[in-house]
Amino acid sequence: MPVFVASAKAPVNIATLKYWGKRDTKLNLPTNSSISVTLSTDDLAAYTTATASPAYKDDSLVLNGIPEPIEQSARLSACLRELRALRAALEQADSSLPPLSSYHVHVFSKNNFPTAAGLASSAAGFAALVRAVANLFELPQSPEELSRIARQGSGSACRSLMGGFVGWEMGSKDDGSDSLAVQIAPKSHWPTIKAAILVISAQKKDISSTSGMQTTVKTSSLFQHRIQNVVPRRYEEMKNAILNHDFELFATLTMADSNQFHAVCLDSMPPIFYMNDASRQAIRAVEELNRAAGKTIAAYTFDAGPNCVIYYQQEDEQAVLGLLRTAVPDADKWTSTNASASLLHGY
Ligand code: 2P0
């Protein structure tokens, strides 16, 4: 019996304007728009192969060689359901197409970075899965349209379907049809921006993003201020900073937004701590670097974990990486424990 095969790769994205909070937990509809930069290094990407065959008895997912219980994943089922519906529409329009929408699929995915340690593994994972199955089904949908599906796997996954600088517009519709990712600018627009990643801990985080953000939505008053008064304006400011190549503004907004995201976590009850002492040391090092340079040449940002991402421009690479290696005592250890993923500058 025939087996149909397609593969895809999707990169990690690191938010510079953070997604934190859902207005609909089933559809992953956010309480605010967000912005990210897609990292282009092959070291931080998910690689997925999807196969379909009339011989398969069920859907299955193997992640880094380990079978995952697919039937328990409502998110995965939602993505497959949507992709099958698009394929079924194609088959209805062209009866010569093989009926892949009625076959089960087997999905094999691997990534080479710490899963669930705040390095956006679910973002790359779901983006690669949606792209691979869309390739398998030969779907003509654009990355924006596919981002609507990837969003249902993991919110931040919608931003990993395109490169460069990406916005996720929260949308206003209850069905989520207008909550999707848009490319603000391709990588070629500002190719000199780079990202260094300090892997402070590869351990799985204590509190998942999904449950952390629900605690925040329910309990934080600072969060209400953030989504109503801060993010809408910051989204426009950051977008313009990107379009104008204004690194100082981009960096200042990025750090402010990371700080506010972690402040909102602390304002939740019970409080959520994602950064640790080494994270704070990295912040101090970047502050010191910018002070010494007399201008903002580096921006730190932290997601739902202690690991630090630092954005800088190519021309400042020596200053930025040099200072970090000396000012952050464990940097060499991070580099040597996991050389390809510890200290990266690949955007
Ligand atoms: C972001 N994070 O914008 C923010 C910053 C973490 C901190 O997107 O529940 O894994 O799957 O939609 O996408 C993490 O949230 O959460 C995240 P779900 P997701 O990158």
From TrEMBL:
Residues 10-181 form the Diphosphomevalonate decarboxylase-like N-terminal domain. InterPro entries: GHMP_kinase_C_sf (IPR036554), Mev_decarb (IPR005935), Mev_diP_decarb (IPR029765), MVD-like_N (IPR053859), Mvd1_C (IPR041431), Ribosomal_Su5_D2-typ_SF (IPR020568), Ribsml_uS5_D2-typ_fold_subgr (IPR014721). Pathway: Isoprenoid biosynthesis; isopentenyl diphosphate biosynthesis via mevalonate pathway; isopentenyl diphosphate from (R)-mevalonate: step 3/3. Residues 196-347 form the Mvd1 C-terminal domain. It catalyses: (R)-5-diphosphomevalonate + ATP = isopentenyl diphosphate + ADP + phosphate + CO2. It comes from the Eukaryota. GO terms for biological process: isopentenyl diphosphate biosynthetic process, mevalonate pathway; sterol biosynthetic process. GO terms for cellular component: cytosol. Its EC number is 4.1.1.33. GO terms for molecular function: ATP binding; diphosphomevalonate decarboxylase activity. Keywords: ATP-binding, Lipid biosynthesis, Lipid metabolism, Lyase, Nucleotide-binding, Steroid biosynthesis, Steroid metabolism, Sterol biosynthesis, Sterol metabolism. SUPFAM superfamilies: GHMP Kinase, C-terminal domain (SSF55060), Ribosomal protein S5 domain 2-like (SSF54211). NCBIfam families: mevDPdecarb. Belongs to the diphosphomevalonate decarboxylase family. This is Diphosphomevalonate decarboxylase. The lineage of its organism: Eukaryota, Fungi, Dikarya, Ascomycota, Saccharomycotina.
